[in-house]
Amino acid sequence: MLAIFKKEINQFFSSVTGYVAIILFLLANGLLLFVFPETSLLDTGYANLDPLFDLAPLIYLLLIPAITMRSFADEFKSGTMELLSTRPLSWWQVVTGKFLGSFLIVVISLIPTLVYYIAIRQLSVNPQQLDNGGIIGSYLGLLLLGAVFTAIGIWASSLTANAMISFLIAVFTSFIFYNGFDALSKIPAFSGSADFYLQMAGIKFHYTSISRGVIDSRDIIYFLSLIGLMLYLTKLSLQRKLWQT
């Protein structure tokens, strides 16, 4: 599994695409948080990072599928998937190695955003008033969100040898899980009791809950369950493809 993990990281950073994806993520966050007036932290009058945690999930919808789209798609395209299946590795080790490699890249892309916290702390009149609990909870929420989007991207990449199709499937599926259920719950026909359960089925409900700084075991279980489900579907997809060849 360690070899798969290292291969995934090396594959991402062996081309300019990997660096460009992370640079664009940080550049987009920087422009939205410090340049564009409607979302600028400097114009809110409050020392917090709420705009970052509101905007980052939307940027992740494009960044993470770009990271994962080649994970299995390139293996199928180059014909190395059959070779990989003959190695003394279980399907779970292959899938987990790919997932952890891609997720580490997501974590690496998130680490530089800590500069924003330092900047806000330095600009704040009273740094002690910063909601550190809420910020920690929000970063935990972003990590869990990134892990879910990574699992979805890995699954999408296992469906096709075309990296662009994998990217589009991952973006669409991630968007549905993040915002689709929440939007569906607002339909008048579901008002009453069904709307609440529809919201709970979506990622946004649990991400917002954790971002308040309150770590609820139900939210953690939701994220871990969704990650496990997508990785299991990835395993099934790989097995089905190889059985057909």
UniProtKB/TrEMBL annotation:
<keyword id="KW-0472">Membrane</keyword>
<dbReference type="GO" id="GO:0140359">
    <property type="term" value="F:ABC-type transporter activity"/>
</dbReference>
<keyword id="KW-1003">Cell membrane</keyword>
<dbReference type="InterPro" id="IPR051449">
    <property type="entry name" value="ABC-2_transporter_component"/>
</dbReference>
<keyword id="KW-1133">Transmembrane helix</keyword>
<dbReference type="InterPro" id="IPR019860">
    <property type="entry name" value="Motility-assoc_ABC_perm_GldF"/>
</dbReference>
<protein>
    <submittedName>
        <fullName>Gliding motility-associated ABC transporter permease subunit GldF</fullName>
    </submittedName>
</protein>
<keyword id="KW-0812">Transmembrane</keyword>
<dbReference type="GO" id="GO:0005886">
    <property type="term" value="C:plasma membrane"/>
</dbReference>
<dbReference type="Pfam" id="PF12679">
    <property type="entry name" value="ABC2_membrane_2"/>
</dbReference>
